[in-house]
User: Fold this.
Amino acid sequence: MRLLRLVLAVIALFLVWLLWGGLYKTPVLQLGIASCVLVIWLTHRMALPDQETHSWALSYRVPLYWFWLAGQMVVSNLQVLRMVLGPLSALSPTIVEVEAKASSKFALTLLGNSITLTPGTLTINIADNTLTAHCLTTATARELGEGAMARRVAAVDPD
Assistant:
């Protein structure tokens, strides 16, 4: 059963590699297969798949979160563009602490990465259930501090 999971993981990773690769010559395909096998072997050696279990609830919750996050990234991109092209006084760098609503490693990682992916914000530190983030404006810091993103991540968290 475990071997079947590893083989399926290699196949899935190789299919993604093929999709994004775009170059289908024999030596490149061989290197692609070798790199996928190496990644799965290293992951298996680190015992990452065994550390946390994820429920089937993630199968629909995570894509919904990705769509919401993509929308937030577009809005943030437009805000940063307006700040860059506008007057310099629009910038007011601020550091804010965000209280995570969920405490699993998965949720903290997802929240930290989501903050960093959103233009104009950057996760600086994660300690216990608190994330420290740098924001380009106080309005962005206020919005982040209100916790909408943390609530959405908590809804995705399987624990």
